[in-house]
Amino acid sequence: MWFGVISIMGDLVRAGTGAGVFGRAVDQGTVAVDLFDPRRHTRDRHQTVDDRPYGGGPGMVMMVEPLLATIAEARSAARARLDQEVPVVYLSPQGERLSQELVKEFAELPGLILLCGRYEGVDERVIDTAIDRQISIGDYVLTGGELPALVLMDAVSRHVPGTLGNSASAVEESHLDGLLDYPHYTRPEFAGGLQVPEVLTSGDHAAIERWRLKEALRRTWLLRPDLLSARVLTTIERTLLGELLAEGLQAAPERSRHGQNIE
Ligand SMILES: C[S@@+](CC[C@H](N)C(=O)[O-])C[C@H]1O[C@@H](n2cnc3c(N)ncnc32)[C@H](O)[C@@H]1O
User: Fold this and answer.
1) What's the whole-number mean pLDDT along residues 220-228?
2) Whether residue 149 is found in the same domain as residue 176
3) 153 pLDDT band (50/70/90 cuts)?
4) How many domains does the chain have?
5) Which atom of ligand 1 is closest in space to residue 90's alpha carbon?
6) Are residues 41 and 125 in the same domain?
7) Separation of CA 156 and ligand 1 centre (Å)
8) What CATH number has the domain bearing residue 231?
9) C-beta 98 within 6 A of ligand 1
10) What global pTM score does this model have?
């Protein structure tokens, strides 16, 4: 998966792509990130990429020409590398909200060009002429698109084969199946005054799977009931939800929430 990131703050992007799982994916070549700096497409000695807004008002606006030239540079890099066009995404608080579905959709592509805005954003004519999609990472406003670009790249890269050591871990996470993830425990069995749920040390894989699904349903019900109402439950999920309701499906019993078996 190739990402072409257009940013005037390349260091910020580099800082987020050089470490951890993402950094390893870059080292191993499963993910590649190329940076494109709009300042390289300016003609004045200050390398100006922003100007005052027409009509007045606060803040500065990123100018059309350096951005269009940089997008053209990134598109041509994508063609040279991938032999095909890739979508140009503008990270914007006005965009479509990033979701697991979108992340999976992006992960199917060979590449993406990500435009990071700064200041008050980009001149509307850039959006009108060169942007295929606008993506927001949430209903709040950041100072620039670099962190949203990193969020998007990180989430997408998890679905690129080879990025995660154990490919099952991407399959079993929150939101992937429309449910939140089940609780996780690791050694030792007793820690912080609390015991790991007994079923997890039983070696009974069917029971473990059932317990995990039930806890995922419980969590989703308690923390994100909107996800459940948007989902068609399977037979086993309906059974487990029935059990939870019969148990009262209040907040998970205190001892369960803190790591003890509820069975
Ligand atoms: C200060 S913001 C501009 C906000 C713009 N004036 C508005 O209200 O829509 C500067 C840049 O940060 C990025 N940005 C800020 N918040 C974002 C969010 N929630 N999701 C994606 N990008 C965001 C965008 O690239 C934007 O151009």
Assistant:
1) 94
2) no
3) very high
4) 2
5) 25
6) yes
7) 20
8) 1.10.1270.20
9) no
10) 0.90
CA–CA separation, 54 and 161 (whole Å): 46
Which residue intervals of 98-194 are DSSP H helices?
100-107, 124-130, 146-157, 168-171
Distance 127 CA to ligand 1 centre (A): 13
- Do 131 and 183 reside in the same domain of the chain? no
Residue 91 CA, ligand 1 centroid: distance in Å: 7
**In angstroms, what is the span from residue 46 Cα to ligand 1's centroid?**
24
Please confirm whether the linkage preceding 58 is cis (ω < 30° from 0).
no
The reply to whether 133 and 243 lie within a common domain is no
SS (H, E, C) 38-79: HHHHCCCCCCCCEECCCCCCCCCEECHHHHHHHHHHHHHHHH
Nearest to 75 by CA among 30, 22, 115, 118: 115
- Identify which of 88, 89, 91, 98 to mutate to test ligand 1's pocket (most ligand atoms within 8 A of the CB): 91
Six-digit token string for 94? 């006005």
Determine the number of helices (DSSP H) and then strands (DSSP E) in the chain.
11, 9
Whether 124 is in the pocket of ligand 1, judged by its Cβ within 6 Å, is no
Average pLDDT over all residues of the chain: 92
- What is the average pLDDT across 37-64? 97
pLDDT of residue 259: 41
Residue 261, pLDDT score: 40
Best of 9, 115, 141 to mutate for ligand 1, by most ligand atoms within 8 A of CB?
141
- Could you say which of 168, 184, 210 is where a domain stops? 168
Task: Output the residue whose Cα is nearest ligand 1's atom 6.
Answer: 120
- State whether 156 and 197 are in the same domain: no
